[in-house]
Amino acid sequence: MRLQPDALSRRHFLAAGTVAAGAALLGACGGGDDDDTATTDSSDTTGPEDDEGYSLIGFLAQGVLAAGGRSRVPFGLGDKDGLLPVDRVPEALDVRVIDQTNSRASNAVRVARHAEGLERAYFPLELTFDKPGVYTLQAEFEGAPAELTVQASPDSEVKLVRPGVQLPAVETPTVADARGVDPICTREPSCPLHDVTVAEALQAGRPLALLIATPAFCQITICGPVLDILLDVMGDHPGVSYLHAEVYTQPDVNLDTFTPVVTQLGLPHEPVLVLVGADGIVTERLDVIFDRVELDAKLTALRG
């Protein structure tokens, strides 16, 4: 099942999508959804068949990982009842990547737990898929195996903006010109990151951090208050332009019409933080979830 913005229901779009060869729909940023229990469809391959033991729970939509380039795959650790609380999650997991021929595609990689400022922990695995195909991430927790299946697509088939490509010069809403978006910020109170458009920020020739998110829906469970985390951290990283763009044109009226930034960047899930160099080239994409520690490191790298 390939999710595209123009065909997504409210639940699917805000559910942090589906894992690529599975489909674990998570109540990540759904309006009013405060349940962190994963629900799955019949094609889910991310958990144990007997509902016992543990699984790696993926947060990404299908078709967003491109082979040949660096990818970030965030995932959580859960059991049959959903994501485990932070105090039950280990400080790190050793993750192996197995390709579709059941050959080891990488040695074990230690991935640190992240949860600073969040209610749930996650693990951001960074790797490069050498070629398109289905891969299995394998780890072990409390003596039991835990797995997640993901798919790397040919680069030409990935619509979502990603590292190495030019960020589109989108005319996003501003305080001076809402461009039909109401409200331009669902955070209460509104955030101060709406003074210029993406196009204007790119013309300034400075590094840019662009967050596409619906803060009213990103308060708990999977994604957490990512806009608040960005606001807290950005003061430590001067010299970077910071912008926030909403997902829906009128979230209080309907959740079927998306803002231009969603379609032009090819977003199948939210939130998404895009980091862009002074040359306008995307350097990082943080999908669905990030904490203060990871964000601080990424902004440090962005500033050079």
Characterize the structure shown:
It is a single chain. The chain is of the alpha+beta class. It folds into 2 domains: 5-156, Immunoglobulin-like (Sandwich); 198-303, 3-Layer(aba) Sandwich (Glutaredoxin), CATH 3.40.30.10. Helices cover 12% and strands 25% of the residues. The chain is built from 5 helices and 14 strands. Strands 3, 4, 5 and 8 form a 4-stranded antiparallel sheet that branches. A 4-stranded antiparallel sheet has the order 7-6-9-10, with no helix packed on it. The chain is globular.
First-to-last CA distance: 39 Å
CATH class of the largest domain: Mainly Beta
**How many separate domains?**
2
| pLDDT averaged over residues | 84
Short description:
By secondary structure, the protein is of the alpha+beta class.
Outline the secondary-structure elements.
Layout: H1 10-14, E1 24-25, E2 39-40, E3 55-58, E4 70-79, E5 82-83, E6 92-98, E7 109-112, E8 123-128, E9 133-141, E10 144-152, H2 198-203, E11 208-212, H3 226-233, E12 241-245, H4 260-265, E13 272-276, E14 282-287, H5 292-303
Parallel strand pairs: 11-12
Antiparallel strand pairs: 1-2, 3-4, 4-5, 4-8, 6-7, 6-9, 9-10, 11-13, 13-14
Top keywords for this entry?
single chain; 304 residues; alpha+beta; Immunoglobulin-like; Glutaredoxin; 2 domains; 4-stranded antiparallel β-sheet; 12% helix; 25% strand; disordered N terminus
